[in-house]
Amino acid sequence: MSYQNIITIEPGKRGGKPCIRRMRITVYDVLGWLAAGMSHAEILDDFPELTEEDIKACLEFAADRERRLIAVVGSLLR
């Protein structure tokens, strides 16, 4: 799976924040629900338009973003 096929960024939607499959649900929304303790099953029950693959794409996107941030900051400190 590749999050690039699921996560979309549109300047006019949700302030250009990364969203799931052109919907108005952002990666930040999903990560916030997970951080608040919601299970994947609870999220999917509350938002039936989402899939398990969507949740995994959000996690993959966040991990990739974190990796890139560390690489950029590390190169600036040298």
Radius of gyration, in Å, reads 14 Å
Distance between the termini: 34 Å
β-strand amount: 5-15%
Global structural class: mainly alpha
Low-pLDDT runs = none
What's the rounded overall pLDDT mean?
90
Instruction: Please count the beta strands (DSSP E, at least 2 residues each).
Output: 2
Q: Largest beta sheet, briefly?
A: 2 strands, antiparallel
Shape: globular
Structure description:
By secondary structure, the chain is mainly alpha-helical. It is built from 3 helices and 2 strands, in the order E-E-H-H-H. The chain has helices at about 25-35, 40-45, 50-75, and strands at about 5-10, 20. Strands 1-2 form a two-stranded antiparallel sheet. Helix 1 (about 25-35) crosses helix 3. The protein is globular and about 45 Å long. The model has no long low-confidence stretch (mean pLDDT about 90).
Main traits of this protein?
78 residues, mainly alpha, two-stranded antiparallel ribbon, 53% helix, globular
List the helices and strands and how they pair.
Blueprint: E1 7-8, E2 19-20, H1 27-35, H2 40-46, H3 52-76
Antiparallel strand pairs: 1-2
Helix pairs in contact: 1-3
Sum this structure up briefly:
This protein has three helices and two strands. It is mainly α and 78 residues long. The mean pLDDT is 90.
